[in-house]
Automatic annotation (TrEMBL):
Protein name as catalogued: 2-methylcitrate dehydratase
Key word Lyase present: yes
Pfam families recorded: MmgE_PrpD_C, MmgE_PrpD_N
Organism: Okibacterium fritillariae
Enzyme class label: lyase
GO molecular function: 2-methylcitrate dehydratase activity
Quaternary structure note: Monomer.
Family: Belongs to the PrpD family.
MmgE/PrpD N-terminal domain: residues covered: 19-267
Length: 507
């Protein structure tokens, strides 16, 4: 890996292409280095994981809406079109709309993979747009694996280096460039075309973090899907010879100067050298629970406390609970956010998903976490849950913040220490560093766990034969022919989609 310093330059500098971050991203994308077996295996895991969480969300309102929009845009004349999760594989739509619908389905339950560093990310959001383009152009599984490896690499490299949330910019601003780069690798595009696509994708996908603040709306699931859709459109325009704002990161009116750290800021971005394998997907981690990643370890701790201290489920026994954790956890999903909605029983599912006091209370009482049952209005408004929930606060602990930002994988952690004071004066203190499913956790996720998660989430909406068909295909991903890549989707069981009336709009 080599580092590049990224900072603002006045227009008079005429910054050379070779010195621009977008160009260096393009160079990584065009590097025809082989994908290792280890990375290929993880790409397969994440394709299965994405399909699992998409299956579980097929009948949810945002997904139904996005799918209905996609189905209103039949395949364009430039290729074979792309599949949408739910309908038969023979039903094809224009690739940017397939990326839109499938991206919303993957993101809706906040239940797929994550990478946290200077910024937040769900790098699995790269998969829907890259798969959509692969299906449309007739790419092979080998090409698809290479494209996905690039998408993960670029997004994770940007997330390691450049904080967006510190300047109230939504994290999907790193996704537009990474998806464009991944599509560029998939298609074997020249560096100049990828460079222009990366710039356009970034320019069109910068937005504020209000989508993840206060009352969190259904747009939370749409935001990354929009970035993927914009990446496809940016690649299409760049292939037609259209150019982007240059330099997009470093310009005096560019992203760094006006959306990030300002004209005096600089960032050190690490990217693979020429000939160096793209391995960053191995640094990401998936979710066992459908909740914000920073809550994963705390759910596991709450489950453990439920078993060892069942008295904690009764709020009458609890005086207060303080979760000592990182700056990010405290200020984004904890009481440090200052959002009253995080304590509101009438809050949206999206808001509860970003409330660690709520999540910890439910997991402590139930000894489990469920992607549907733990979020129902009845569950959120249960009087004993509300009483316990309102006794839980978070506090920033510098040591947990240090662990959060550590670059040492053995030390990097997203958990916390819980201090519980009972009404009889008893104190219970326990802590957890990483989630059970984390590579360093009590039960690290492997292929069998990804498959089990898929089976569990798909069983209510897919026929058993469809579950087996998809798994058999996904596990052969690097060997798939173009025709088989076109079958890399999931079809709902008869009557599942028909049970939901799609909404009406303009299309």
């Amino acid at each position: 890996m080599s580092t590049t310093t990224v900072r603002t330059h006045p227009s008079g500098d005429n910054l050379e292409r070779s010195e621009q971050l977008a160009w260096k991203i393009a160079q990584v994308a065009v590097d025809d280095v082989a994908v290792s077996d280890e990375v290929t295996e993880m790409v397969i895991n994440r394709v299965i994981d994405n399909a699992a969480v998409a299956a579980a969300s097929l009948t949810r309102s945002p997904v139904v809406s996005a799918r209905s929009q996609a189905l209103a845009h039949p395949v364009s004349v430039g290729g074979q079109g792309s599949t949408v999760f739910g309908p038969a594989a023979s039903r094809r739509v224009s690739p940017e709309w397939a990326a839109w619908a499938n991206g919303v389905a993957v993101r809706e339950l906040d239940y797929h993979d994550t990478f946290l560093a200077a910024e937040y990310s769900h790098p699995g959001d790269n998969i829907p747009p890259i798969v959509a383009v692969a299906q449309h152009v007739g790419a092979t599984g080998h090409d698809l694996v290479r494209g996905i490896a690039t998408g993960y690499e670029i997004q994770i490299d940007l997330v390691r280096s450049i904080s967006l949330h510190a300047h109230k910019i939504d994290h999907v601003a790193h996704l537009g460039p990474s998806a464009a780069a991944g599509i560029g690798t998939l298609l074997g595009l020249p560096a100049e075309t990828i460079f222009q696509a990366v710039g356009q994708a970034l320019h069109t996908t910068t937005a504020t973090r209000q989508s993840r603040k206060g009352e969190i709306s259904t747009w939370k699931a749409h935001a990354p899907a929009f970035a993927g859709k914009m990446a496809i459109e940016a690649v299409d325009r760049a292939m037609r010879g259209q150019t982007s704002p240059v330099p997009i990161y470093e310009g005096e009116d560019g992203v760094i100067a006006w959306l990030l750290g300002g004209p005096e800021a600089s960032y050190e971005v690490w990217l693979p050298d020429a000939g160096e394998q793209k391995r960053s997907i191995l640094d990401s981690y998936t979710k066992e629970h459908s909740a914000e990643y920073q809550a994963q370890a705390l759910i596991d701790l709450a489950r453990r406390l439920h078993g060892s201290h069942p008295e904690l489920a009764d709020p009458a026994n609890v005086e207060r609970i303080v979760i000592h954790t990182s700056h990010h956890t405290h200020n984004v999903i904890g009481s440090g956010a200052g959002d009253p909605q995080k304590y509101d029983p009438q809050a949206t599912r999206e808001t509860l998903d970003h409330s660690v006091p709520y999540i910890f209370a439910v997991a402590l009482q139930d000894g489990a976490w469920h992607h549907v049952d733990s979020y129902t209005p009845a569950r959120a408004s249960r009087p004993d849950t509300v009483a316990l929930w309102h006794k839980i606060t978070t506090a920033e602990d510098p040591e947990w913040t240090r662990h959060y930002h550590s670059t040492d994988p053995a030390e990097k952690a997203f958990g916390g220490r819980v201090e519980i004071e009972l009404t009889d004066g008893t104190r219970i203190v326990d802590e957890i560093a990483v989630a059970d499913a984390h590579p360093l956790g009590a039960r690290p996720f492997g292929r069998a766990d990804y498959i089990a998660k898929f089976r569990m989430l798909a069983a209510p909406v897919l026929d058993e034969s469809e579950i087996e068909r998809f798994l058999a295909l996904a596990e052969r991903l690097p060997e798939l022919t173009a025709d088989e890549v076109g079958q890399l989707t999931i079809q709902a069981a008869p009557g599942v989609l028909a049970s939901i009336e799609p909404p009406h709009g303009l299309f």
